[in-house]
Amino acid sequence: MNPENDLIISQRLAKNFQRNFRERLIEFGLLCSGLIAIFITLAIVYVLVSEAIPFFQYVSIIDFLTDTVWTPNYSIKHYGILPLISGTLTTTGIALIVAVPLGTITAIYLSEFASHKVREIIKPILELLVGVPTVVFGYFALMLVTPMLQKIYPDLTTFNMLGPGIVMGIMIVPYIASVAEDSMRAVPMSMREGAYAMGATRFQTAIRVITPAAISGIVAAYILAISRAVGETMIVAIAAGQQPNFTFNPVESAATITSYIVSVALGDLEHGGIGYQSIFAAGLTLLIMTLLINILGHAVRKKYAERY
Amino acid sequence: MAIQNKAAANKNLDSIRKTIANHKRHDFIFASLGTLVIASLTITLLILFLDLVIDGYPRFNLDFFSNFPSRRAARAGILSAWIGSSLVLLVTFFVAVPLGITSGVYLEEYAKKNWFSDLIEINVSNLAGVPSIIYGLLALGLFVYSFGLGQSILTAGLTLALLMLPIVIVSTREAIRAIPVHIREAAYAVGATKWQVCHNHVIPYSYGGILTGVIIGMARAIGETAPVITIGALTFIAFLPPSPIGLEPPFINFEWLESGFTVLPIQMFNWISRPQLAFHINAAATGAVIIMLTLLMNGLAIKLRYNIRKKIKW
């Protein structure tokens, strides 16, 4: 062994060490940004819970869940979340009545009937529809859809749940269509060929073979749509009237959980006041609702997982 | 006897023909129905766009872009709104893009398959499903009051960055997943370290896909209203934030980050909420600007993705 060789080896080792050290450092850095998702989730839960706790010390949970009046801004204050939930459920229900049939038909059509060329044109259009900001949809609901509905049903007030519900439905059609279509396209070709070989028409194949086979994905699409509709804010804030109202009647005006949060945030927020805390309690309710919907979706997906 | 048989066979044939004709009719009816639904969706999109453009037409002039909001509708403009939107998006971009890409690279290239990476993954997909207004509440509690950032451009930018993050992460991961293993193997074979593989090969090759995700995320951030309202953004702003670029050294300053602001969708919301019809014209014009921006950006992203799919053959 000559010393020159030793030197080279030790230099190499030093370089190797440096290199390894740098690799570790980078990996650590990447890990940190990978953790951001967990951090955000924890932060959401922490902020909502810690701001809602003082609220629930002031208002009992039983009152919160059973009182049918929500008047935090009046002199006689009531904090019952039910009117906000009824508003949320009604608008979501109207949206689903519109979106489920339209979305399902679109998905079946794109997956089973449309030619490759047609699909290549339609899918980008649906994506553009997804990209339309909700505040624009809100304008649409207030200025175009509600006046149109008023021609059919003259007693309709300017602010109602029907118009925004319908517009919300149009908004979520592309979500249903694209997720359901993906799951239908994932059904193996052999199943279609089998059905055609038995003499089934396209329609029969689509309804009796493909739809049952893809049902888990289709249901997942509906559930995604529900959680979008429940969390939708601007359309209802603009066109449904922001007045809490315990009703399921679509022609009346009402507030949803989300539009209540917006209406409070637009006013003067006194940090730490009961109004401030109430929007966190409302937000927590909303988060729990969407969480339950997502868990339901997960369970449905697991139960009807594709078995072909 | 034979004649009778023939008649029966004919009758049978007829009924079969009838069934087939019936089935074909069902096919036709459904295909027409599908076309009708899709046509009406397209027309809705078109009406939406045209309605805004037609309603807002009287305001399409330079003054609208260079005036502050005003109590008189005809003189009100969106100067503070579009500058606010641009500055907020600048913050969003510089926060969400690096974080999203590194997070995606970690999940796809570094993370080992275990409960921990599963946990991160579940979190990312859950975050994409959280209603945007919840992010607004998070920002209100955390950024505005706990961190003391106030109702500033920085707060709004960070809030929208949180919203955009899952989109960037998911598109980064999809783009990386499309790169075949042999590219990585070749790099490892000539002695590259993991980071060198990522930095010199994996990330550059997935630029197109990542860019698509970034554009879609930015388009979403432009139109996002609820979380920005929730952090308490003001709706009437008749001043501009300090300019980010100065004429004297050090040329760049960051005072604008702490400034109050408004953004385009909030300006639009504010004008819709007013009872006077004249302001609704302003709202429509603002909406036309927003929708043009988002449609352009989404169109660009779709085109980009189409090009990538067509061009790259490993």
Layout of helices and strands:
The complex is a heterodimer of chains A (308) and B (314).
Chain A: H1 3-34, H2 36-58, H3 61-66, H4 82-113, H5 116-131, H6 134-152, H7 162-185, H8 189-197, H9 202-213, H10 215-231, H11 234-239, H12 257-266, H13 274-303
Helix pairs in contact in A: 2-13, 4-7, 4-10, 5-7, 6-7, 7-10, 8-9, 10-13, 12-13
Chain B: H1 2-56, H2 62-66, H3 79-110, H4 115-129, H5 132-146, H6 153-177, H7 181-189, H8 194-205, H9 207-223, H10 226-230, H11 264-272, H12 277-311
Helix pairs in contact in B: 1-12, 3-6, 3-9, 3-11, 4-6, 5-6, 6-9, 7-8, 9-12, 11-12
Quick structural overview:
The complex is a heterodimer of chains A (308) and B (314). Chain A has 308 residues and is an all-alpha fold.
Would you kindly provide a written description of the structure presented here, covering whatever features stand out?
The complex is a heterodimer of chains A (308) and B (314). Chain A is an all-alpha fold and 308 residues long. Chain A folds into two domains: 3-54; 82-303, MetI-like fold (Orthogonal Bundle), CATH 1.10.3720.10. In chain A, 77% of the residues lie in helices and 0% in strands. Chain A starts with a helix and ends in a 5-residue tail after the last helix. The relative contact order of chain A is 0.14. The mean pLDDT of chain A is 88. With 314 residues, chain B is an all-alpha fold. Chain B has two domains: 1-59; 61-311, Orthogonal Bundle (MetI-like fold). In chain B, helix 1 packs across helix 12 (277-311), helix 3 runs antiparallel to helix 9 and helix 4 crosses helix 6 (153-177). Chain B is flat and about 105 Å long. At the A-B interface, helix 1, helix 2, helix 4, helix 5 and helix 6 of A face helix 1, helix 3, helix 4, helix 5 and helix 6 of B.
